[in-house]
Amino acid sequence: MNFIAFLILGALAGWIAGNIMKGRGFGLLGNIVVGIVGSMLGGFLFSALGLKAFGFVGSLITATVGAVVLLYLISLVKRS
């Protein structure tokens, strides 16, 4: 059950980040990948700043922030 919740969290975070950065999502698989990588990046950023998130909503916020940062970094690399 934890794995399914992890995939749902990744899909939601990726979809939200896609809507924030580009105005649309990336499809189910793309949203999951962006959300999962974003959750790792967000966890690193939050711990570096001394912030902690608890529960599903906290995890969703952390993953979404990380996914937005990831998409921003990707857009910077694409421009070069």
Automatic annotation (TrEMBL):
Q: Keywords, A to Z? A: Cell membrane, Membrane, Transmembrane, Transmembrane helix
Q: Where in the cell is it found?
A: Cell membrane
For this protein, the parts annotated as crossing the membrane are: 28-46, 53-74
Tell me the domain of life: Bacteria
Q: Does the keyword Glycosyltransferase apply?
A: no
Bilayer topology annotation: Multi-pass membrane protein
Pfam families per record: Transgly_assoc (PF04226)
Similarity-based family: Belongs to the UPF0410 family.
Q: What is this protein called?
A: GlsB/YeaQ/YmgE family stress response membrane protein
| Species of origin | Alishewanella maricola
Its organism's taxonomic lineage begins at:
Bacteria, Pseudomonadati, Pseudomonadota, Gammaproteobacteria, Alteromonadales
